[in-house]
Design brief:
alpha+beta; six-stranded antiparallel beta sheet; Peptide Deformylase; 3 helices; 168 residues
Length: 168
Amino acid sequence: MVLEILKIPDPRLKIVSEEVKPEENNEDLQKFIDDLVETMYNSPGGIGISAPQVGLHKRIIVVDARPNKKTTINHGLIVMINPVIVFSEEDIIIREGCMSIPDYTGNIERKNKIVVKGFDRDFKEITIETEGMEAVVFQHEIDHLNGILFIDRIKNPHTDLFRRKKYL
């Protein structure tokens, strides 16, 4: 089922999400993850989504950077529970958009290379080493878990925030 994506200025987007406990891994959680994946794939330009974007304040993200033409390295569809960035390097400036902020894009400073640890949907530990666009998507979605939107990271709104011409 496609879920409704929260949009600014909804205050729920600023709430810090709670960790998912292993005992919470049940049929309801698996159904929610399926719905989150479906929501991402059914959203124009969707290459990542987080649970808080649909109103569940749990540390769950979904990433699939394959549809983005800037993606060179990717791992396909990744569901990650309780993700933590354990290593990052190489600053880059990249244009970002967000399904929760559909009318704007912005130039954001991110890390080009990261290592993320967490759990897959079966609560098995996973480590993802990635770079480029996929790394940016991970950072963007983890920000959502912390109540941070890309517009919060814009250094100068006069030069780095842009009205979206069309939503891809």
